[in-house]
Amino acid sequence: MQFVQAISKEYNRRFFDWVARDVLKTNPLQPSGDSPVIVSMLCHRDVRMYLLAIKSFYRALGRGRIVIINDGTLTQKDIDLLNLHVKPSEYVEASDLSSPHCPEYISWKKLFCIARYIKDTYTIQLDSDTLTVGSGLPDVQKHIDTDTSFILGTWKNQQPTSMLEAAIAAQANQSTHVQMLAEKCFDRLPGSDTLKYIRGCSGFDGFAVQSFDLAYLEAFSQQMYSLIGNKWNEWGSEQTTSNVIVANSDRGAVLPYPKYYNYWGEVENGSDFIHFVGSYRYHGGVYRRLARRIIRELSA
Questions:
Q1: Domain of 91?
Q2: How many structural domains is the chain composed of?
Q3: Are 254 and 198 in contact (CB under 8 A)?
């Protein structure tokens, strides 16, 4: 059974890549305005996927400047292609983003980069494995206009909860994932009685001006190191941090689900935005079919 599933996944991945080639035939973006900043981490393998993500998103949002974090694998051909199709205002090298007081794995680089821009500009983090299928994105537009943070949610009617409640809820879970271990310790953080938490997804989030800075990231990481040790260095700690930042930002909120949702193998009707998480990305061919639709619309 596992062999059959692996073959099916590889088939769907290759079929998606074949369909995604046609994004290169769509019209280039014409970015306008300085705000918001739209930040994405990008690798060579995901360039076409990113073009689908940013072109579908920008078509709906209609404003902002684009920043690309080069994970170190982008070729000159990739950069030429991106300059033609996306016209980024800046490329940031992942190797230039670091802190001795935080984890060093690649996803943390996004937070380090965002910390630079939110000093004076609303900043959005957009993953490459996303598609914007709706028009206008009124919820996102409102967050930008009111300078309030947001994050992609994980269930219907989700609201920020207290850190104490999050810690209690996590106790029964036996997972050793870093996010779960961190949540179990939230009641031991200074000020936890007044802090809030959202179990969201950092594949798509927006950060209000001055909602955090590098010093905040470093201080929070040091607190978590003291509670769970080097476990904090594992993948998922940056998402936990994003959840905390948004929850404790003034009027920070969860985007309405399933209007904005993570694809776990089931299609939700009436969605504007979909994040195709890795383990289910090509499941059922949904990503491929929507990509084909987006390409057709962008080509009209």
A1: 2-160+198-299
A2: 1
A3: yes
Distance of CA 154 to the CA centre of its chain: 13
Give all strands of the β-sheet with 65-70 in edge-to-edge order. Answer: 90-93, 65-70, 37-42, 123-126, 201-207, 150-152, 253-254
Identify whether 220 is part of a domain: yes
Extract the tokens encoding 79.
């950069």
Domain CATH for 215:
3.90.550.10
User: Does a structural domain hold residue 275?
Assistant: yes
The predicted-structure confidence for 151-171, as pLDDT tens digits, reads as follows 999 999 999 999 999 999 999
Residue 101 counted as domain residue: yes
Answer whether residue 170 is part of any domain: no
pLDDT tens-digit series, residues 213-272: 999 999 999 999 999 999 999 999 999 999 999 999 999 999 999 999 999 988 888 899
At 183, list the tokens: 């949540």
Q: Please state the φ and ψ torsions of residue 66, each to the nearest 5 degrees.
A: -110, 130
Q: State phi, psi for 192 to the nearest 5 degrees.
A: -60, -20
Q: pTM score, two decimals?
A: 0.95
For residue 5, the model assigns a pLDDT of 66
Cβ pair 17, 48 in contact under 8 A: yes
> Hey, what's the torsion of the CAs at 174, 180, 184, 190, to 10 degrees?
170
